[in-house]
Amino acid sequence: MLIGGKWLNRIGALAIIFGMIFFYKYAVDHDWINETMQVCLGYLVAGLFAWMGIRTHKKGLPIFAQGILGTAIAVSYTTSFAAYEFYHLIPTLVGFALMSVVTIGAFWIGFRYSSIAIALLGWFGGFVTPLLIHSDHGSTIGLFSYLGALTIGVLILVYRRPSWWILQSLSFGAVHLMLLIWVSDKPYGEERALHVALACLYGLIFVSFEYLMDRVKKWKIAMM
After folding, report:
1. Which of 99, 106, 114, 176 sits CB 3.0–4.6 Å from 129 for a disulfide?
2. Residue 9 belongs to some domain of the structure
3. Is the pLDDT of residue 68 over 80?
């Protein structure tokens, strides 16, 4: 009876979720919910998925929990982007900040629950954010300060999870791709010196990290 009760509970929960989805679609189609309410509901749904993911993980279902938590992150990204791009409810700076908070949350969840898939989702969202949310008068210093902070955050994550080295490689490529995209929008010769300086700076960050990892590895071997 206990097992049957658990399954009935899960079926009931799924029925409620699907019912909410269909009700939401029906309400939007019939203009019952305005744009602000849609954004609020988006964050509410993301929070609900996050809560469900944490509870599921505590019940000993880590793989299923990671899928639910990943959905929460994806919904948060989508909601933040929609609030900025489609509904124009928030300014550029707020939209950028919200996307950045989601990225930090994705990294933390990925680290907390040992999920490289969620960390990769955060990595993708972090590097795509400047392409999705920007203005015609964006700050060059602000953009590359953000990329620098994001890169350092990724490297710290790799330091704590050495098996996630793929994040380091992807970040190296993404940073220099962003540099190329940025410089391609400039007239020939304009700010090229800055481009070279930034490329060298980011290269130095990655080289320094490799040196640090090598020293830590040797220190651990020496301590054995």
Report:
1. 99
2. no
3. yes
